[in-house]
Design a protein that fits this description.
55% of the residues lie in helices and 2% in strands. The model has no long low-confidence stretch (mean pLDDT 96). The protein is mainly alpha-helical. The protein has twelve helices and two strands, in the order αβαααααααβαααα.
């Protein structure tokens, strides 16, 4: 019998990204990783979730979700090859991690978007699409914690990976983990379409609707300003 903790990415890692690297900028100088080098699972479950994401997400958010998948895969390949990552589980997480940011879902609940999005993903995957319970729970937890940045405690492997990849795409953080050639190729395949201004506006909308939102823990102005002023991705932001 397989071990669901390992299979679905629950293995605990430090929540502090600096601890992962022992204070270094990276574990090795990254090399270009192209989209064509990556494995995109094409299981029935992935196809159904991809269709769901295309239907419910703005194209800007959908492209962001696929960039997060690509950057995460590049980070594992180049920096953390010992990590065991289920490509399917990570792709499902990426496709659904911002489902709570749609206008419909932001206005449907008083909950912060990550937590509501995690609940949506749990129901969609397990109840509707009959994914294994442990896999659905892994995706849900990673979505709920993908903005739970901090220096104490632990997080799942899938959760840590999507934190690294979303911070990279949204704010240009962890810039030394990914080669510029990877950014060039990923943004050509999945254009940003002014993602920096798009997502910063979404953050401000949620904070206006819900002044208690978990996003405010990252800084009520610092976070949306950091997204809007993402210097690493600025040259790519107007690729449409």
């Amino acid at each position: 019998m397989s071990n669901p903790v390992k299979e679905y990415g629950f293995t605990a890692l430090p929540r502090d990204s600096k601890a992962l690297l022992n204070g270094k900028k990276n574990n090795k100088s990254p090399q270009p990783v192209l989209v064509s080098d990556l494995i995109f699972p094409d299981t029935s479950l992935v196809k159904k979730v991809m269709d769901y994401a295309k239907l419910n997400l703005r194209v800007e958010t959908y492209n962001h979700s696929l960039r997060v998948y690509c950057y995460g895969q590049a980070i594992v390949r180049e920096q953390f090859p010992a990590w065991h990552i289920s490509n399917e589980t990570y792709l499902l997480t990426c496709l659904l991690h911002d489902i709570g940011t749609t206008d419909k879902n932001l206005e449907a609940t008083l909950m912060s978007f990550e937590f509501y999005g995690g609940l949506i993903a749990l129901d969609l995957l397990h109840k509707e699409l009959h994914a294994p319970k442990e896999q659905a729970e892994s995706v849900s937890e990673a979505i709920m914690r993908h903005q739970d940045l901090g220096e104490s405690g632990k997080i799942t492997t899938i959760g840590q990976l999507i934190q690294l990849a979303t911070v990279f795409d949204n704010m240009g953080g962890h810039a030394d983990l990914v080669h510029q050639g990877t950014i060039d190729d990923v943004t050509a395949r999945f254009p940003r379409k002014k993602w920096s201004s798009c997502f910063s506006a979404t953050i401000r909308k949620e904070n206006s609707l819900k002044p208690w939102a978990h996003t405010t823990a990252l800084g009520e102005d610092d976070f949306p300003d950091g997204v809007a002023n993402n210097r690493l991705m600025e040259p790519y932001d107007f690729i449409m």
